[in-house]
Amino acid sequence: MSDIKSRVKLNNEIEMPLFGLGVYLSEEGEQCIEAVDYALNEGYRLIDTASFYANEKSVGKAVRQSSILREEVFVTTKLWNSDHGYDEALFAFEKSLKKLDIDYIDLYLVHYPVPGIRPKTWKAMERIYDEGMCKSIGVSNYMSNHLQELLSVCNVPPVVNQIELSPFSYRARKATINTCLENNIVVQNYSPLTRGRKFDDPVVQELSIKYGKTPAQILLRWGLDRGFSVIPKSSNPGRISENASIFDFRLDTEEKKALEKSDEGFLVCWDPGETE
After folding, report:
1. Residue 195 DSSP SS3
2. Alpha-carbon distance 209 to 206, whole Å?
3. What domains, with CATH codes, occur in the chain?
C-alpha cells in the first residue's frame, strides 16, 4: 500500500509526491512557517503555494530551515492572473523565486487560463523550463478546451493540471480528466474536502463509520484511489496529521461509485468552465 511519500512520475520523468500540503489562507509569518514545518515532520513532501497566496517567503523559510533535504521536498508555486504575458511571466517567476529564496522551484503553474494572452504566457513558461530555472511546468484550472488549445501550440506540454475536484464534481470534470489522462498530464486535486460542506453526505458518513475514519479522510482517500494527486490545505497541526492518516485503507470500486452518485457539479471555488 502506498504511503505519504509515494511519488508519481511526470511526463518529463521528474517524480512528484502524490500527497501534499496546500497553504492557501495560511498567513505569511509564523502561522505558515509552523504549518509547513509541522507537515514536513509528519512526512509531507509536497508544499503547494502561489504568488496570490502572499506566503512564498514563509514557505521558503520553512523549507530552508527544515532538516529534510531540499531535494526531497517538492515546492510548487503559481503565476498569478495579472502577470500573464511573456516578459511579465518571466519577471513574476523571478520574483517568486526570490521570495522563496530556494535554489530552484520544482513546479511552476499558470494559476488560471486568462483569455487572450495564454500562448505568450506559455512561451515564457517554456523558457523558464528550458533554461532550468524550474524542474517542471504546468497549469491550474484548465478545462478540456484550454488544455486542447495549449497542446496544439506548445513545445513543452504541462506535467500537471491542478483543478478543484471531489466526488461531487467528478462527472462534471470528466472531459477534463480524460484529456489529462490521454496526454499523460497528472490531475492534481485542490479543495478535495469541499470546505466541509459535504461532510454530512450520507455515503460519506456511512464510509466514515465503516472505516473508522473522518469524513475528510474519506474524501482524501477517494482522490488518491481515483489516481489523483491530492493537496488539502490546513495550518492546523491536528488537521495536518489527520489528513495524512489515510494510508492504511482503500475504497473499493463500488464505494467510489457510491460517493459519485451524489455528483451535482458541486464546486466551492471559481469555475473556469466558461472562460474562453
Report:
1. helix
2. 5
3. 7-274 (3.20.20.100)
Helix 86-100 / helix 56-65 crossing angle, nearest 10 deg? 40
What angle is formed at CA 215 by the lines to CA 211 and CA 219, rounded to 5 degrees? 95
Q: Report the C-alpha gap between 258 and 251 in whole angstroms.
A: 10
**Tens digit of each residue's pLDDT (9 = 90 or more) over 54-66:** 999 999 999 999 9
Task: Please give the Cα distance from 46 to 21 (Å, whole number).
Answer: 6
As a whole number of angstroms, the distance between CA 132 and CA 212 comes to 46
CB atoms under 10 Å from CB of 271, counted, come to: 13
Q: For residue 84, give the amino acid letter.
A: H
pLDDT tens digit string along 140-159?
999 999 999 999 999 999 99
Low-confidence ranges of the chain (pLDDT < 70): 1, 274-276
Per-residue cell: 20:
501534499
Whether residue 1 contacts residue 250, with contact meaning beta carbons closer than 8 Å, is answered with yes
Instruction: Please report, in angstroms and rounded to a whole number, the separation of the first and last CA atoms in the chain.
Output: 41
Residues 6+ apart with CB under 8 A from 170: 177, 226, 260, 263
Phi first, then psi: give them for residue 206, nearest 5 degrees. -60, -45
Respond yes or no: is residue 53 known to be catalytic.
yes
244's grid cell:
495524512
Given the residues 38, 44, 53, 190, select the one marked as catalytic: 53
